[in-house]
Design goal:
Elements (H helix, E strand, L loop, with lengths): L3 E6 H12 L3 E4 L6 H13 L3 E4 L3 H13 L4 E5 L2 H5 L1 H10 L3 E5 L18 H6 L8 E3 L4 H18 L2 E4 L3 H5 L1 E6 L60 H16 L2 H4 L2 E4 L6 E6 L2 H16 L3 E6 L1 E3 L3 H8 L4 E6 L5 H8 L6 E5 L8 H12 L4
Helix pairs in contact: 1-2, 1-7, 3-5, 11-14
Length: 383
Amino acid sequence: MTKNIQFIPGSDACIEGALYAGCDFFAGYPITPSSEVAEGMSAALPKRGGKFIQMEDEIASMACIIGACLSGKKVMTATSGPGFSLKQEGIGYACMAELPCVVVNVQRGGPSTGNPTHVSQGDTMQARWGTHGDHSIIAMTASNLQDLFTTTVEAFNFSETYRTPVILMFDEATQHLREKVVIPEPGEIKVVDRLRTTIPVGEKYYPYLTDANGKRPMSDFGAGHRYNVTGLHHNISGFPDVSPKNVDDLIHHLVEKIENKATEIARYKEYYMDDAEYVIVAYGTTTRSAIQAAEDYRNQLGIKVGVFELQTVWPFADEIVKEKCANAKAVIVAEMNMGQIVREVSRVLAAPGKVFLSNRANNEIIKPSDIKASLKMIIGKGV
C-alpha cells in the first residue's frame, strides 16, 4: 500500500491531525502566527462536509466552538498571543460546563502585542492558570511535525475522554517548519468519538451524572433531551447550585478527573536517557537544540547527557519527571521564556538545588550552543 507522505508546514500537520481525529467545525479569527491554521481549515473542512466560520474576534470564535460542541461537533479554534488571552473566559466556561474542544495556541513573543512574528514559549503558565478559579487543564506540545500530527489527534481524544478543553501549545518555529509527515491510514491511530447518552428521548437525562464507568455521557443539544448549561456552579441537572457541599464536590471533580490521571495522560520522549548522568528537560522547539547539545557532549567529550522531552506539559507528570531525573547529577531545563517549567521540575525533585535553567526570552530560538554553555557552567567542561 502506498503511504500518504507529505512535505508540509506545521500548520498543515496540525490540520491533518485535526481532520484525522474527526474535527468537523472550526471557528477562528486571523492572528499571526496562527493564521495559517484557520486558512487551511477554511479550505479543508467544507470539502469534508464540515463547517468553517471566521468570527469578528477571538472571544466570539471561542464562544462559537462552545456552541458547536454542544450541538455534537468536534471543534477546534486557533490563535496566538493576545488572542489566547481573550479566549481565557471562554476556556474557563468550557472547563466548568465540561465541553470538549481543542484550542491551538501558536506562541509568539509577548506580553501584549510583543513580537507577532517571532518565537516564544512564554504562554506555558498561562495555559495552566490563564482562566480564573480552581480547575485543571490538559496542554500538549511537540518538537517535530510527525509528533505534531499525532499530538493533535491525541488532543481531540483527551478532550472527548475527559470532557474538557485541551490546549495545543505549539510555537512559531514549529508552526513554520517544513518536514516530512506520514499521514496514517484510518484506524492506525485510535480516535475517541463523542460518548453519547443511551437514555431514550423523553426520559430524564442528567448531563453531569457520572455513570458506572466513571464517564459523563453527553446529549447533542437540540436532539431531544432538555438540559441546562451554565458557567455557574451547578448540580447534575446543570442548574445553578451554590451550596457548599455541591460546590466542593464539583470543584474536586473538575480538578481530580485530570490530575488523578496525570500519569496516564503524560506523553513524553526520551533521548539517550538510559545511562544519562546529566538530563536536559525540554519541550517544543527547544527539544531539537537539546538533542544536538546532548549528542555533542557525548560524541566529543564522552559525557553522558540525556534529553527528556515533555509532550504533555499539563497536567505536569510529577512522578514520571521525578523518576527520570532522580539519578541525574544535574538537571537543565531548556525553555524560551524567563523560566516557567523549571519551577515545576524544581518543585518535584528531592534536590531542587541541582536544577538549572538554560533559556532565551529574546524572540530567538534557543541554540545548542546556549544549552552547551549551561552544561559547561555546571560540569566545568565544554565543546
